[in-house]
């Protein structure tokens, strides 16, 4: 099999010849853009889609993976008005996700520390 073991195909080149995110404005739908995010998959696409759908200004948010062997996702976002652009909605969604993931990490770390303390303590009822 001719598959690289270190997933070299998922790395962006160091010379910035491939941008991480590129934007295509939708010509048929008002206040809509399609963002192509390189080297990402369903993990980021689904989280970002769901976060954007919680925003009252976002009418539509969806993503797709054009091909399973192509390491990129296409995220489409449409907002209600021009006061909040799709790019601003995505930026706000990313910041909200970062906050939620920070809370998740903190809760995980505190639970892990608590479990380690419990297992380090001697069992009750033994001298």
UniProtKB/TrEMBL annotation:
CDD domains: RNAP_II_RPB11 (cd06926)
Compartment(s) where it occurs, according to its Swiss-Prot or TrEMBL record: Nucleus
Annotated DNA-directed RNA polymerase RBP11-like dimerisation domain residues: 33-106
Keyword tags: DNA-directed RNA polymerase, Nucleus, Transcription
Annotated Pfam families: RNA_pol_L_2 (PF13656)
A GO molecular function held by the record: DNA-directed RNA polymerase activity
Family classification: Belongs to the archaeal Rpo11/eukaryotic RPB11/RPC19 RNA polymerase subunit family.
Protein name as annotated: DNA-directed RNA polymerase RBP11-like dimerisation domain-containing protein
Species assigned in the record: Prymnesium parvum
